[in-house]
Amino acid sequence: MNASQKEAWFNLVVVLAALLMVAALVPFLGKGAMGGFGLLGFLGLSPVFFRKQQGAVVLDERDTQIRLRSQFCAHLVFWLLFVLAAMSAPAIYGWEGSVPVVLVMQSVFCGLTVIQGVSSLATLIQYGRGGHDAA
Amino acid sequence: MIRRLRFDHGEMTQQELAVRVGVTRQTIIALEAGKYVPSLLLAFRLARVFGVSVEGVFQYQDGETGPSAVKLPDGK
Known about the structure:
The complex is a heterodimer. By secondary structure, chain A is mostly helical. Chain A has helices at about 5-30, 60-95, 100-130. Chain A has one domain (about 5-50, about 60-130). By secondary structure, chain B is mainly alpha-helical. Chain B has one domain (about 1-70): 434 Repressor (Amino-terminal Domain), CATH 1.10.260.40. Chain B has helices at about 1-10, 15-20, 25-30, 40-50; strands at about 60, 70. In chain B, helix 2 (about 15-20) packs across helix 3 (about 25-30). The longest helix of chain B has 11 residues, at about 40-50. Chain B starts with a helix and ends in a 5-residue tail after the last strand. The interface between A and B is medium-sized, with 18 and 19 residues.
């Protein structure tokens, strides 16, 4: 497993943990459950996986290509969901209605979750297709 | 072909080759499996390490796109 795969797994676990935390806290805290998204702060630790090791390459041109494709997939999914959410707002709140502030805040965390989750999944899928380790 | 070239050059390991051309071992594995098309720069580096021309390592297939467009000379 290379640095990019480790990072993808780490990010996926953090995203899933944050979602589970929020889901678990909602019955007790209501809107305060959004604090569970604070776990997403651990995403900032991912550069640790790319520390320079003596004599070894941690990121090369193939990793960069996989990374770019993953980010493209993530932003595509995010954009589709964003458009869908924006277009469905009038149906939920009416043309003259107003969107709750908490929903705007949640959308930021949800967007981050979608981008990191899809990007990590796409990365792992692409490495999975790239052949297995050989001698 | 890369695998054969490695063995022809003192049974070079994938890791040794990876370090010499500046990529990860996984990229060498993907190249040997024909699942990754390298950049021109990497192709030249590989050819330089083995002391052959680029076409001694990779061959272009007319009319193909993606990874199948570049074949290793042994047909892989």
